[in-house]
Amino acid sequence: MKKILLIEDDAALSWLLERILRQDYNVVAMKDGLEAWAWLSDGNFCDLIISDINLPYIQGTELLENLNNSGLYNHIPVIILSGLEESRKVCLELGAITYLLKPFNPHQFLQEVRLAMNQKPEYVF
């Protein structure tokens, strides 16, 4: 089963997204960018990252920069969720494949996740 790293500091939204995604994917949820980066740095891998832009410790833009500078993680597609329209251009320039504004349509969200998952093969380790 493909794995998604979900990074969302809003507990209610994280819970909802986990419930939606767990039907088809293995979901690992983190509450901030630093916790997510530590998880990746411990040798964990995922097929997709879904991240809020405003996070404690490491912002979504910093996370994108770190992923881009990493030879191990720069291939992982990233979907950014945000309530801020002004961050869209920067995030897309940093490599996010999609930028969804909150509140977003759950059907559109799942469609974007499926498209991202179909862009690359599943990893076998």
Task: Walk me through the structure.
With 125 residues, the chain is of the alpha/beta class. The chain has 5 helices and 5 strands. Helix 3 links the parallel strand 3 and strand 4. The chain is globular, with a radius of gyration of 13 Å. The C terminus is likely disordered.
List the helices and strands and how they pair.
Elements: E1 3-7, H1 11-21, E2 26-30, H2 33-41, E3 48-52, H3 60-69, E4 78-82, H4 88-93, E5 98-101, H5 106-118
Parallel strand pairs: 1-2, 1-3, 3-4, 4-5
> What fold name stands as the CATH topology?
Rossmann fold
Shape descriptor: globular
- As residue ranges, the low-confidence spans are 121-125
CATH superfamily grouping: Response regulator
Largest sheet: 5 strands, parallel
Q: What's the helix count?
A: 5
The total of beta strands comes to 5
How many domains would you count in the coordinates?
Answer: 1
In the CATH hierarchy, what is the class? Alpha Beta
Portion in strands: 15-25%
Indicate the radius of gyration in whole angstroms.
13 Å
The structure class reads alpha/beta
* Average pLDDT reading: 91
Order of helices and strands: EHEHEHEHEH
Spatially, the strands of the biggest sheet line up as 2-1-3-4-5
Q: N-to-C terminal Cα separation, in Å?
A: 12 Å
What helical percentage do the residues reach?
25-40%
In the CATH classification, which architecture applies?
Answer: 3-Layer(aba) Sandwich
Jot down its keywords.
125 residues; alpha/beta; disordered C terminus
Task: Give a short summary of the structure.
The chain is of the alpha/beta class. It has helices spanning 11-21, 33-41, 60-69, 88-93, 106-118; strands at residues 3-7, 26-30, 48-52, 78-82, 98-101.
